[in-house]
Design a protein that fits this description.
With 187 residues, the chain is mainly alpha-helical. It has two domains: 1-31, no CATH class; 53-186, Cytochrome c oxidase, subunit III, four-helix bundle (Four Helix Bundle (Hemerythrin (Met), subunit A), Up-down Bundle), CATH 1.20.120.80. The protein is built from five helices and no strands. It has helices at 3-11, 53-76, 80-110, 119-151, 161-186. α2 (53-76) packs antiparallel against α5. 25% of the residues are buried.
């Protein structure tokens, strides 16, 4: 058996026999997630739960996907009020998501002991959700620009690629969040 396969299997506690060892990384190693390494590197912390702010943020982003689609439909049927209202709702929901993510970060850092230094889990949590929050911010800014351009009458039902590109980006950010919610918060 190649060494890498042996180490991979053995570190997780898989397999039988005299070569099996769960102490290959450090004494008392257990293959559990989340972990913060030997001696609780980075201190004690609680993993972030899925319910509460993360679930609320999921509902906010899914709602914003509906409102941007509603706004796009308003563009297509030449209903300017629907277009503007849908974009305002989408932009507000996007920035509300970012605001709640900031609250979640503050709670994680101050009350749960979860930091970038809290082992693999802490750095993975903040990296994944932070990059997503950055992309939500970028998308909300793009939709804000589109909103101002819609107020000025820059788009028509036949010529609004910028609007559609921003909406596609927004939907992509929504789908990515669903994956993050499942893999970061639920697992």
């Amino acid at each position: 058996m190649p060494y890498t396969t042996f180490v991979t299997c053995q570190l997780g506690g898989v397999g039988d026999g005299p070569g099996r060892s769960t102490n290959m990384l450090w004494e008392g190693y257990q293959s559990t997630w989340p972990t913060n390494g030997p001696g609780k590197v980075g201190g004690e912390y609680e993993p972030m739960g899925a319910f509460g702010l993360p679930l609320l943020n999921t509902l906010i982003l899914l709602s914003s996907g509906l409102t941007v689609t509603w706004a796009h439909w308003g563009m297509i049927i030449k209903d300017r009020q629907q277009l503007i209202r849908g974009l305002i709702a989408t932009v507000l929901l996007g920035f509300l998501f970012v605001f709640f993510q900031g609250i979640e970060y503050h709670e994680a850092y101050t009350e749960m002991g979860l930091t970038l230094g809290s082992g693999v889990y802490g750095s993975t949590f903040f990296m994944l959700t932070g990059f997503h929050g950055l992309h939500v911010t970028i998308g909300a800014i793009m939709l804000t620009v589109v909103l101002f351009r819609c107020w000025k009458g820059h788009f028509t039902p036949d010529n609004h690629f910028v609007f559609e590109a921003a909406a596609w980006y927004w939907h992509f950010v929504d789908v990515v969040w669903l994956g993050l919610f499942i893999f970061v918060y639920l697992f």
